[in-house]
Specification:
Blueprint: E1 2-9, H1 15-28, E2 34-41, E3 47-50, E4 68-70
Parallel strand pairs: 1-2
Antiparallel strand pairs: 2-3, 3-4
InterPro entries: Dala_Dala_lig_N, PreATP-grasp_dom_sf
Domain D-alanine--D-alanine ligase N-terminal: 3-61
Protein name: Protein containing D-alanine--D-alanine ligase
């Protein structure tokens, strides 16, 4: 099964729009074909893998949901993916 990373949020005036868009995208990706990995960026620039309900994405409810894991992108080619 292929993995799809849905990146949302960010340090931008479009942060809230991005979260709403991500909620729609994550809700509509066929789960029988793809493993969806939502990765949110807070308004302060922190990165988190989000494993909660997509209805929490709008209005930044996802940040305080307890369903976030700090995410780091390694520059080392030996470490594949996001850790």
């Amino acid at each position: 099964m292929k993995k799809v990373l849905v990146l949302f949020g960010g340090v931008s005036s479009e942060h809230d729009v991005s979260c709403v868009s991500a909620s729609y995208v994550v809700s509509n990706i066929p789960r029988d074909k793809y493993e969806v990995c939502p990765l949110g960026i807070t308004k302060e620039g922190e990165w988190f893998l989000f494993e909660g309900d997509v209805s929490l994405l709008p209005e930044d409810k996802w940040i305080k949901s307890g369903k976030c894991t700090k995410a780091l992108l390694s520059p080392d080619r030996k470490d594949h993916g996001i850790t």
